[in-house]
Amino acid sequence: MTRGIVGAAGYVPFRRLARTDIAPLFGSGGGKGTRAVASHDEDTTTMGVEAARLALRSAPGKVPDSLWLATATPAYLDKTNATTLHAALRLPASTPAFDFGGALRSGVGALQAALMSPGSTQLVVVSDLRDGLPTSTDESAGGDAAAALLVGDGTPDHPVLAEYLGGASVSDEFLDRWRAPGERRSRTWEERFGETRYVPLGTQAWTTGLEHAGLDAESVNHVVVVGMHTRAARAVTRSLGVPADALVDDLNDSVGQCGTAQVGLVLAAMVEAARPGEVIAVLSLADGADALFFRVTDARADWTPPRPVRSQIASGAPLAYGKFLTWRGMVTTEPPRRPEPARVSSSAAWRNESWKFGFVGSKDRSSEAIHLPPARISMQGGAVDDMEPVDLADTEATITTYTIDRLAYSPSPPIVFAVLDFDGGGRFPVELTDVDADTVDIGDRVEMTFRRLFSADGIHDYFWKARPLVRGDQD
């Protein structure tokens, strides 16, 4: 039975930092191109939710047997972050959700484990948020993103888009990049040492992977080498022996080096762009090397990506360097003179899980009135406990009215609140995100997005906000 990728999507945050904006402030650092920046209300969990929503939309009706989240920068330790994705995606309680965390290699590791698990369907989510001290290479070259891949055996309703042909892994213990628990910045050893290790490891994984997949280098149509060690990745790329036109953009110039998420992001972009019959490959360098080979199937011709990675990159908006430093906590600006919010109640969040994490309202069976948040008593007719759940997380809405609040507490003031009318019924006031206050207008179309409202006492308060529809989705 054919096994491989049956659904795929990437998520690139809306904001972009131009690397040329760094040097004018500090006199050093920066570079060319842009890096994707997670908003102040995003983390690896919320980005993972957005990527997973798109991946599930790319394979309608497909329910994974398990959910795996891989990240080197988890929002929580001890607590499982994947269960937040599980709740936001409204997966069945019987679907296990696990974290693969702590290391850059955990992303490609989770993907390999899924590819070698026949008879089941895994939703593999990879997400990362890369930090670095101001003017550092990690700050300018890093990037924030997530991706989700549905891995399973092909069925008539959900055929494989990219068949897994085989691959290889090579591991070695050497100190190239590390970060102690509790630290935000990564440290690196002397660059030439890492290159002397990664080049032979990458070459070995590539050669062995080709053999296992029954391929030769000339038969690979699209390939990309990813890794936080840019110098080594370039050196390995030159040794692959593939035609020059087979080398694929690694997204470093537009998105940045996204650590754990990079493998999934470039792979999703390759599946979106490839044609049936083409062979695509990805080689990842992190504490060793991992090579994966796929053949795009005929099913790709009938598949439409819900929101291609390239379109997300093109639709990004600039972010001032000062705002970036504020969002990252590198600079502390004067906050609104209002008390910070108290921590969220764990018991209250559990009692309202479907509403808080899934954005599930209620509909009166007799009048069909939609209630947000869900209610027991209908606002039309007064019926009691005669409701059915209605999931509005994927329903678009229109701004009926809005206000700009410059006094309420926010990590990034001002706050834009809007009253939304949802398609098919339902009205709800909600905060807007990924928007400039002076561009909002009544009648604008928006969609819901899973975000972090705030954090207090180490607890993240997750809920839903609204953002403007991507222009391509409105055409």
Percent strand equals: 25-35%
**Helix coverage percent:** 10-25%
Largest sheet: 9 strands, mixed
Average the pLDDT over all residues and give the rounded result: 94
* Contiguous helical run count: 13
- The radius of gyration over CA amounts to 23 Å
CATH topology of the largest domain: Peroxisomal Thiolase, Chain A, domain 1
How do the strands of the widest beta sheet line up side by side?
5-4-6-7-1-8-13-12-11
CATH architecture assignment name of the largest domain: 3-Layer(aba) Sandwich
Structural class: alpha+beta
Instruction: Compute the separation of the termini in Å.
Output: 39 Å
Number of domains: 2
What's the CATH class of the largest domain, please? Alpha Beta
* Strand element count: 22
- Give the low-pLDDT segments: none
Coarse shape? globular
Query: At the fourth CATH level, what is the homologous superfamily of the largest domain?
Result: Thiolase/Chalcone synthase
What does this structure look like?
The chain is of the alpha+beta class and 475 residues long. It folds into two domains: 3-327, Peroxisomal Thiolase, Chain A, domain 1 (3-Layer(aba) Sandwich), CATH 3.40.47.10; 346-358 and 393-474, OB fold (Dihydrolipoamide Acetyltransferase, E2P), CATH 2.40.50. The chain is built from 13 helices and 22 strands. The strands form five sheets. It has a nine-stranded mixed β-sheet with strand order 5-4-6-7-1-8-13-12-11, sandwiched between helices. A five-stranded antiparallel β-sheet has the order 20-19-18-21-22. Strands 3-2-14 form a three-stranded mixed β-sheet, with no helix packed on it. Helix 2 (44-58) crosses helix 3 (82-89) and helix 6 packs across helix 7. The chain is globular. The two termini are 39 Å apart. The mean pLDDT is 94.
